[in-house]
Every structure is written in C-alpha cells, then in structure tokens.
Amino acid sequence: MKKGLIFIAFSTLFFSTMEIAIKLVATEFNPMQLNFLRFLIGSIILAPLALRHLKGSGFTLDRSKLLYFLFSGFMCVVVSMTFFQMAIVYSKASIVAILFSCNAVFVIPFAYFFLKEKLTKLSVVSLIISLIGMICIVNPKNLTNVTGITLSLIAAVTFALYGIIGRKGSLKYGFDGIVQSSFSFLTGSIELLVLILITKIGFVANWLQGAGLSQFASIPVLQGISWSTFPALIYLGVFVTGLGFSFYFLAMEATSASTASLVFFIKPALAPILALFILGEAITLNVLSGIVLILAGSCVELISDNRQAKLEKKSRLKTVTGASTAHVR
C-alpha cells in the first residue's frame, strides 16, 4: 500500500504540472506539433511496461485490434488532446487543469448510455455538484474567455469518450490500461503526423489559410526544438506523458482503480496552487468555490465507486457460496 501511495504521489505531481509545462512553451510550438511530440515520446516510455504485461499472454495484433487502436488513438491524441493544447493557448493553465479534470464527471452519463453501467443516486449527486462547480469557474455573469473555456470542455468531454472506448476495448479484448494507453498513444501520434504532413501540401495549406485556419497550415514537425525548449519538451514527453501514466497504472496494480483515481481528485486543487507559484495565475473566489465543489463531487463519486465495489464483491461471494452448497448436495 505504501508503494501504491508513492506511485499516486508521483503521478499526481506530473499530471498537475502538465498544463503549466505546456503553457511555458506554448508560444514556441504549434499546438498539434507539441501534441505529436509529447505523445510519441510518451508511447516510447510506456512501451517496455506494455510489452512486459503482454509477455506470455498470447497477444496478436490482428485487423480488429489495429482498427480499435487507430480509433482510440484518434479520439485521444488527435481530437481530445489537440483541443486540450489549444485550450491552454487561449486560457489560464489553472482553469484548463480544473475543467479538464472534470472528464471523470462526463464519464458517468457516457458509461450509463454506452456501457449500460448502473447509475447510482450518489453518482447523480456527484455529477450535479461537479457541474455546479464548473459553472462557478466559468462564471456566466462575467464570461470573458469563451474560446478557452469551450475548448477545455470539448477536450474533457472527448477524453471521457476515449475512456469509454478504452473500457469497451478492455471488455472485448482483455487489455489493461498500460497496453491500451501505449498502443493508443503510438497510433494516435502516427495519425497526427500524417495529418501534419498533409497540412504541408501546397493547395491544402493555401485552403486552410484562406479559411482563416492559418494555425493548421504547414504545421512544423521539429521546428522550435532548441536548448531553451528541450527541457520542457522532455519533461512533457518523458515525465508527464510517459512516467505520469506509468505511475498511474502501477498505482492501480499496487492498490485499486478507485484508490488510483485519487490522482484526478487531487489535481483540481493542486494544479491551480502550482500555477499560482510558477505562472503567477491568481485564484479568484469563484474559481476557489468551483474547486471545492468539484473536489466534493469527486469524493462523492469515490464513495459511490467503493460502495458499488463492495456490493459486487458480496454478490460474487454469495454466488460462489451458493454454487459450493449446491455441489455438496
């Protein structure tokens, strides 16, 4: 358990500094370029851990699994994380960190509709409290950054959908989180690289510029990498994306999925504090209120998950006991 808590601590630290590190080099890289570089590095760091998990499992990469990884990688790296990168360009790192952490909230209704998972009363309460917290942070009466907030919420919603896709893959193919993330990050990076190369084609670049999307025209691949930006790039790729997810999955192995999820419950509180000291981003009263509410909603969901896990454990024990009794008879 002590080892698991150490893994949770490191994962929380790396994930809580993600938006800050991106903000520090956001002007040096194109959002899609930085997205490609950090997830490519992250997939390489995760690969040894994933291969260790696959050892002796009889895993084969057939057409069905490849299509699955291509789809999950597209949803995570190309869609969700691109919106996430752009959100940091247009908004404060602390706001993006808080709103993106709410992806766990969006998983609740998605799991109900797509996975037919039971929607408990506590889950509904958690959803309502967290939504009120998001409204406090967004502050509709003084909404000055519509673009940044919209991009943050789209990133959170699409990442929640990626989570649902991951659960479906786990149920169908028996993947664990490490294998799922490693292969999805790699395929997503390759897909993003293809899209980046397409934007360099003359008529495509001209069309994008004419449509007012010059940020997506002729996207560089290696431009911007220098001695001044290299440390931040390595930190994002190796520590945040690679080791951050590695420690998160190792925490799951050492404790449980519910306990490891504390990472995303602590991040909304820790990230704004780090942004205050590193970037000088002030924490306003409405943001502070939103943080408290989101943490409260997360705690309610954690209680709901633990209660549901205990009920399922009791149900399994009853089934085993009943089967044993019937066998004796």
TrEMBL record:
Keywords for this protein: Cell membrane, Membrane, Transmembrane, Transmembrane helix
Keyword Membrane appears in the UniProt entry: yes
Bilayer disposition of the protein: Multi-pass membrane protein
Domain EamA: 3-138, 147-299
Keyword match Membrane: yes
Gene3D superfamilies the UniProt entry points to: 1.10.3730.20
TM stretches of this protein: 37-54, 66-88, 94-115, 122-140, 146-165, 185-208, 228-250, 262-279, 285-304
UniProt cross-references to Pfam families, sorted A to Z: EamA
Domain of life: Bacteria
SUPFAM superfamilies: Multidrug resistance efflux transporter EmrE
Subcellular location(s) per record: Cell membrane
Family statement drawn from the similarity comment of this UniProt entry: Belongs to the EamA transporter family.
Protein name: DMT family transporter
Species the sequence originates in: Sporolactobacillus shoreicorticis
